[in-house]
Amino acid sequence: MFSTLDTIVAIATPPGRGGIGVVRISGPDAHRVARELTGRETEFQPRYATLVTVRLKPDTTSEGETPAVVVSASRRTNSEIDQAIVTFFPTPNSYTGDDVVEISAHGSPVVLTAIVNAAVTCGARLAEPGEFTLRAFLNGRLDLPQAEAVADLIDASTPLQARTAFDQLNGTLTEMIGAIDRALFDLIAQLEASIDFPEDGYHFADPAEIGDAIDAIRQRTTALLCSARRGRLIREGFTVAIIGKPNVGKSSVFNALVGARRAIVTAVPGTTRDLVSETVDLEGLRVTLVDTAGIRETADIVESEGVSRSVGAASVADLVLLVCDLSDPSTLDGLLDSNAIVSNSNIGDRLKAVPYSAKLLFVANKADLARTWSRKDAVEVSATAGSGMDDLRRRIVRALDVDLQADRPAITNLRHIALVEQGDRALQRARSAVLDHGEALPEEFVLADLQEARGAFEEITGRRTSDDVLAHIFERFCIGK
Ligand SMILES: Nc1nc2c(ncn2[C@@H]2O[C@H](COP(=O)(O)OP(=O)(O)OP(=O)(O)O)[C@@H](O)[C@H]2O)c(=O)[nH]1
Ligand SMILES: [Mg+2]
Fold first, then answer.
1. Are the C-beta atoms of 318 and 360 separated by less than 8 Å?
2. SS3 378
3. What is the pTM of this model?
4. For a substitution probing ligand 1, which of 247, 264, 304, 371 has the most ligand atoms within 8 Å of its CB?
5. How far apart are the C-alpha atoms of 362 and 87, rounded to whole Å?
6. Is residue 177 within 8 Å of 221, Cβ to Cβ?
7. Are 35 and 44 in contact, with CB atoms under 8 Å apart?
8. Centre of ligand 2 from the C-alpha of residue 271, in Å
9. pLDDT of 263-318, one tens digit each?
């Protein structure tokens, strides 16, 4: 599956049109393919921008025709695709570690596809998604967290996400895991010596010393795990569901937060039937807003399904915005009992089904109309006039309770978090084995736990990762990355 022996090609820039588009070729034949594509007699100078004319191979200008040995002047002109800049990065100093050629042509999908097809005719193979980065990993140019950081950096939708991904690409996490691994290695070596050479006095590996050493390693794992929740939220973002009775202005609040007329707004109660979601950047946090159907008892089966979906969306959200209408006190009815959304009314019952582990933010909309009620804990806004929206954004971020000023977390990815937890549990077991046995240190037991911990950390960096895990990680990438 993971062959690195052939030469791969793909468009590395996003689909669509632009000033420049880049075709990337990587592998042992990259340089030859580039020379054939450009009809160049001499070698490309490494890491120099060289202006070239890219052309189709003569025998590919018209399909099925006998390849012409002598190319006429007009045929040669016909076969020219574009003027481009070629940059050649010889192995090992390239992105993938193989020979890499990047052809920067004009950013037209037609031109770029023609260049890719021409490269295939010259012997290159179309790259699989993530295959360039996979090669970088297999060639030791990046470790696994760094390869994963490439995908995160490309996917980032807020500056904070981009910075945390860049830290990981720079090796912050790699360095922390490396330090843990080195400490574990020393400890394991000491215990193994104690088992293997008891007569040399190693036998008396001091339990207190071993215990202290494990504690020191656990300090590092605990620190990593402490920042993990914040890291995961920065990377994956939050879901905020907008809930309330029909016609209170949920879709209007949603549109105002998104900054576009994304959801349909009408004066007819029951306008929204399905969930509508959109991702926005709120003070650096990636937030997926979900607009929902107004909650009421209804005989309409479409609306009723919509109401069920609203309840479902509220139950999985990190934060629920409960929207009510300041001009209509009945929009509060049955929704709130002191601070929680609980009541005996039918509507309240539907909402009672929502496990409100999620936080709740109370939004009083239509502040531009005559006020019929007020609540201290409500954020007053007018979605149509735009008043109070900045305050609402701030309150949402505050309610999500992420400290944006704190240091950027080193660990953000669920796979890494699970493995650090696994390593930490093994360390805890090793620690209790040391404690439980006092002076008679059960080296074998402690050793087995420490080895398991080490295995988990090596799985993070990719030193011990199965093909399945790799395939899963690189599936996330798109072609050309
Ligand atoms: N005056 C005023 N009218 C508003 C405001 N927000 C929404 N409206 C009006 O209220 C009506 C309902 O707005 P929507 O945003 O569709 O309400 P909704 O809660 O999504 O309604 P459903 O989807 O039917 O549950 C529309 O006529 C809006 O123009 C506001 O802040 N002030
Ligand atoms: Mg609506």
1. no
2. strand
3. 0.74
4. 247
5. 57
6. no
7. yes
8. 5
9. 999 999 999 999 999 999 998 888 999 999 998 888 889 988 888 888 888 878 88
